[in-house]
Write a structure and sequence with these properties.
The chain is 40% helix and 29% strand. It is an alpha/beta fold. A 6-stranded mixed β-sheet has the order 6-9-10-3-11-12, sandwiched between helices. Helix 7 links the parallel strand 9 and strand 10. Helix 6 packs parallel to helix 7. The relative contact order is 0.18. The protein binds adenosine-5'-triphosphate and magnesium ion (MG).
Length: 250
C-alpha cells in the first residue's frame, strides 16, 4: 500500500532522510521507533507534502500512485492522513466547520457527493463518542486552548471522520493520561484495524503498542531504517536501549 524506496530529503540544505526504505502492506500496523532527531517527524512531513521539505532522491508509491508527484490535498483525497506530534491551533475556525470542509473537499476530490450538515453532525457525534470527547469540544476553535491530551484525542476524532486508508500517526500517545491512552489506542484500532488499511505508528514507548499491537516494528536512526522486526523488537528496545539493539547485525 505504501512503498518508500531509498528516500532522501533535506531541510534548509541539511540532509535529514538518508536513503530510507520501508514498505507497509494493506492491513498492516507498522510501528516506527527511533532516537530523538532521527527523522521520524520529517518522514511524516515529507509523506504529507509539507512545504520546505525537499525530496532529493528516491520514490514513494501510495496505492499504486507516485505520492511525491501529488499536491498535499491530493494526497489527502487519495486516503492519506497525518496525525501531528504537535497539532496546530486554528483560531477563528471551529472543529465542526474545519472537519466538514476537510471531509467534503476530500469527497469532492474523489468524485463523491458532499455530506449535508445533518449527516455530518451525526458522523461527528458518533466519532466523538468513540473517542469519549465531549461534542462541546468540537464546537470550539480547532485546538485553541485544548490541553495536550485533548488535542491528541480531537485529532483521532478527525481521523475517524475522514476515515483514511492510511494514517501516519506521530507520537499520538504523547501527553495522554493513562485512561486517555487506552481510549485513543482503542480508537485507533476501531478506525484503522481493517484489512484494507495501513498505519505507520511513530512512538517512543511500548505502552501504546500494548493497545495498538503492531505487526512490524522498525527502528529509524540517522534518516534511515536500520532494523525491522516483530513486536518483540519494541520490547527489547524498552529493556535494552537503542545502542545495544542497533549494535548487533541487522
Ligand atoms: N529547519 C531545519 N534546519 C535544520 N535542521 C532541522 C530543521 N528542521 C528539523 N531539523 C533537524 O532534523 C532532524 C530530524 O528531526 P525530526 O523532527 O524529524 O526528528 P524526530 O525523529 O521526529 O525526533 P523526536 O523523537 O524528538 O520527535 C533533527 O536533528 C532536527 O533538528
Ligand atoms: Mg518527532
Amino acid at each position: 500500500m505504501l512503498k518508500i524506496d531509498n528516500l532522501t530529503a533535506e531541510i534548509d540544505g541539511k540532509t535529514i532522510l538518508n536513503g530510507l526504505s520501508l514498505e507497509v502492506a494493506a492491513g498492516e500496523i507498522h510501528a516506527i521507533m527511533g532516537p530523538n532527531g532521527a527523522g521520524k517527524s520529517t518522514l511524516s512531513y515529507v509523506l504529507g507534502g509539507r512545504p520546505g521539505y525537499e525530496v532529493t532522491g528516491g520514490s514513494v508509491t501510495f496505492r499504486g500512485q507516485d505520492l511525491l508527484d501529488m499536491e498535499p490535498h491530493e494526497r489527502a483525497a487519495a486516503g492519506l492522513f497525518l496525525g501531528f506530534q504537535y497539532p496546530v491551533e486554528i483560531p477563528g475556525v471551529s472543529n465542526v466547520q474545519f472537519l466538514r470542509e476537510a471531509l467534503n473537499a476530500q469527497r469532492k476530490g474523489r468524485g463523491e457527493e458532499p455530506l449535508s450538515g445533518g449527516e455530518f453532525l451525526k458522523l461527528a457525534k458518533e466519532k466523538a463518542a468513540l473517542l469519549k470527547l465531549d461534542m462541546d469540544m468540537l464546537k470550539r476553535n480547532v485546538n485553541v486552548g485544548f490541553s495536550g491530551g485533548e488535542k491528541k484525542r480531537a485529532e483521532m476524532v478527525q481521523m475517524g471522520i475522514l476515515d483514511p486508508a492510511f494514517a501516519v500517526l506521530d507520537e499520538t500517545d504523547s501527553g495522554l493520561d493513562i485512561d486517555a491512552l487506552r481510549v485513543v489506542g482503542d480508537g485507533i484500532n476501531a478506525i484503522m484495524r481493517d484489512s484494507g488499511k495501513g498505519v505507520l505508528l511513530i512512538t517512543h514507548y511500548q505502552r501504546l503498542l500494548d493497545v495498538v499491537k503492531p505487526d512490524k516494528v522498525s527502528i529509524l536512526s540517522k534518516g534511515r531504517i536500520v532494523k525491522t522486526g516483530g513486536p518483540e523488537l519494541a520490547l527489547r528496545l524498552e529493556n535494552e536501549g537503542y545502542d545495544a539493539v542497533m549494535a548487533e547485525p541487522a
